[in-house]
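Lab notebook, bench 4. The sequencing result for the construct came back, and we need a structural model before the next group meeting so we can plan mutations. Quick request posted to the team channel:

Model the 3D structure of this chain.
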Amino acid sequence: MSVEFLNMEKETHDQSPSVRKALLIVSCIVLAIGNCGTPLMTRFYFIHGGNRIWLSSCLLSAGWPFILVVMIITLYYRRATMGDSTAKLFNVKPRLIFASIVVGILTGVGNYLYAYGISKLPVSTSVLVVASQLAFTAGFAFLLVKQKFSPFSINAVVLLTIGSGVLALHTSSDRPDGESKREYILGLVMTLGASALWGFILPLIELTYQKAKQVIDFPLVMEIQLYINLFATLFSTVGMFINNDFKVIPREARNFDLGVTRYYAVLVCSGMLSQFFAIGLGGVIFCASSLLSGIIIAVLLPVTEVLAIILYKEKFQAEKGVALVLSLWGFVSFFYGEIKHSQMPKGSRPSDVLST
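Done. Here's the predicted structure in token form:
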């Protein structure tokens, strides 16, 4: 690892531990809201008469102006409270903008795969399939950012992967009314594809931070997320034009089960919740790692599952029960390993050894 990067790393983390801990906690809470609310709201759109997949995928990033509001608030805070009169709203260099464009396009593709999957699957099924994302995140984190693993984290990844694989058994019993087996299986495949792609995107964002060649702080993280979501939106907007979604939206709103006003309210809520996910995700990766963000996403699986069963009266077969137990077992294994890791002498922790 170069001396230049080590110096930048030191400067990047030159904050009080309490500030970073508070930022991590807030990011986790914001990520939890977005991670649980987004699939529920997206499925709500499809349940009540929505059927535009490109529109739904666009909503997963179209709320990016909300990040701009966060950036403005952060800028005001730094100038008023920290006395940083030199702070600017936009600081990203061209190198990072290019990286953000690449990640943004990949995010747009992942959003489409996810939207397609959730249009065909019950939420309680789709979130269990998404749990497989952790295995992909772990693998790519190892390859891209040299993530260190303990036996506990490996066990967690294996259990979560097996848990999501159990859903392949007797899938037809969970198929929504009026949907063919082919559509259901395609929904599973598309959701799994989205999980794999997002498992690559999370470590790629962390790698972008590491290779930035400029000091990474929270305002810069938000700016990167702004560009990522902006270009993901542009990607989905092209798809909407090709698919004539803009012409169909007014008619779909009139035919929506809950009326025109609530139709547009659902679209706005979907866009906002997705940005909670984006902001929380960026914060967790910045404060900790892409692997932890993947773990948190997986940890929230039971919450989303229970909410889907309660709100949408979805079925809960034995396969989902087995997958849920394996997932919870994996969560416990990971966090037990983290506790054991934190109790080790600092010099003997695997993460204390920098890879070259």
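Confidence is low (pLDDT under 50) at residues 1-14, 347-356.
Will bring this to the meeting.
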